Amino acid sequence: MNDEERAMFYEAGYLAGVLSWHDPDVIQPSELSAMGPAGDPVIVMCGDDGLTTAQARAVAAINGAGRAIRVVTAEALAPEVAAWLPEGSLHQMGSPYRFRRRKRPCPRRQPV
To answer: What is the reported pTM?
Structure first.
């Protein structure tokens, strides 16, 4: 394992911790076609080769089926590829962690 792969694994592990994912499937983009719609959360590690449009569509399909998925990249993806990824699913190494927080409705206070 080279230094870039080691750094990518570290980033994926840190991301899993931030998301409170205890046992995510950590995969390479070539393994996306074997992923089903149900199961543990998935972290896709993209090295220098990045992601193809077909692989980005697979990420969108897995997410659309309800399975949690994130993509970790070493470099920025091409705009036509990134356009297929669901909002909040892409993390570039070294960038700040940004996550959408679900808004909880505030209970209305009842007059006493």
So the answer is: 0.80
Give the pLDDT of residue 45: 93
DSSP secondary structure string for all residues of 41-101: -EEEEE-TT---HHHHHHHHHHHHTT--EEEEESSPPPHHHHTTSPTT-EEETTSPP--PP
Report, as ranges of residue numbers, the positions in the chain whose pLDDT lies below 70: 96-112
Residue 75 near residue 100, CB atoms below 8 Å: no
Task: Using alpha carbons, select from 60, 78, 80 the residue that is nearest to residue 70.
Answer: 60
Amino acid present at 65: A
Rounded CA-CA distance 33/54 in Å is: 10
